[in-house]
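Please check our next protein.
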Amino acid sequence: RGDVIVMAEIERLRVYPVKGLDGVAVDTAAVLDGGTLAADREFALFDADGDVVNGKRTDRVHDLDTDYDRSSRTLTVATPAGETAQFALTEEATRAEQWFSDFFDADLSLERDRSLGFVDRRDMGPSVISTATLRAVADWFDETTVDGVRRRLRANIEIAGVEPFWEDRFVGTAAPELEIGGVRFEGVKPCARCVVPQRDPDTGEPTPSFRERFVRRRKATFPDWADAAAFEHFYSLMILTRVPDRDRGESLHVGDSVTVVTD
């Protein structure tokens, strides 16, 4: 096994403490025993039928502006009307449930999963994308900023110092692996996108013809060196990874170097 060093490093780490709501930037994040990042989707709101509240089910999540303090597990919420509320989620779950139930006009419960989080794909770990990919996608749409694309795609780990769509190389036949700050990552699959990236992250308004333009440009810019057979369709961007058991419990830090590991 040989190591090919590239001039790459973690540019950003982001976790989403309450599933479906805003993410927060962190300087460091531990890999949990379940293979996900600490505080990522640690909490989630569920309705009476057991369905999770997220952007796939309701665009009303975009009406909420949220922030989160990890040390106290305190969520701050603001509505378009200027109403604000604050909850220490572990101690004030009942009050948070009532507030969100009133806002979404549904009977909601707040649940917590400390070992894995309420990630969609529970056998996989953090999502990875490059800053260059975000810039490329922002160029596909008028009046769309890099940060706007970042908020639409909601990745955990953002890598700087590499080319656009660099992360595509880590899925498919004979794909290499990643090592970031001594933590190994196996690319599992490309992330098929849902309706959420099609909406303005501030207003929830759909961007006209977003999916059609995205697919057209993604196909036109798809790297020759990527394994196209690993992609079911071109409405896919960023990769989903898996951290081996031996590296769980380790931590990632902004600025950690990235190594491409090949056989």
User: Anything to note?
Assistant: The CA atoms of residues 43 and 112 lie 5 Å apart.
